[in-house]
């Protein structure tokens, strides 16, 4: 399994904390966050001791402990603990070095020397303390390998990524050799950013008003008169289709007496009606000159 190496540069601070939880956004003390279950919420603190003029480390009462081992000395024999796991050998020697304190108890300050190894959980830090304050080849930053010392929100990370994309768009890195398509796209993008976008100018020209009627009159002077004359001729010319006569008006069928089998005829007979007489009129009213409808409708 390959080990990933990163840098924690703390030259500008007097102390730095180690823990599983992120530091509050309002704090001024940097914290190196280790997302491991063996690391406590606030595990240890490394600070600058002005009296001794040296860096020191203190365990803040962690459960699984903070271990320190000098680089030039073989690991010290310590009593095996149930939390050491695979880091303990069969002879009772912890490969991570000396534990600073018992579980859940704060330790006394321990001075850090150059190249001391500080282990918290599954992470090991190597202290680089140079008297001339100049980084060596092992602790110089190569860009993008630094551990963040303060809490960075998701919005801030997205803003930083957007800023990097904008910088890459303005000054993109050179494509790998042999990739002709990417080289052509990069050249096109750089030319458009320098001289403006010609596509926008073409779109503005296409949206400008063009009098097509004036162009047509200039190219074909007689066209409008011919079109108007043809239109007038088509309006005034009689239609060649034959005119069909209007349909005849519908006429009513002649009155026909009701048959004796008709249900209405039989109902009227039961009510006292006689064929040839008016319905609902007395004989005296008929003799007096009043008109009554005798024929069926």
UniProtKB/TrEMBL annotation:
Compositional bias ranges of the Basic and acidic residues kind: 197-213
Pfam family membership, one: G-patch
Annotated ranges, domain G-patch: 260-297
Any GO molecular function: nucleic acid binding
Positions of region (Disordered): 77-97, 192-297
Annotated ranges, domain FHA: 16-73
UniProt cross-references to InterPro entries, sorted A to Z: AGGF1, FHA_dom, G_patch_dom, SMAD_FHA_dom_sf
Biased segments, Polar residues type: 81-92
Biased composition (Pro residues): 243-257
Residue ranges, compositional bias (Low complexity): 228-242
Signal peptide: none
Protein's name according to its UniProt entry: G-patch domain-containing protein
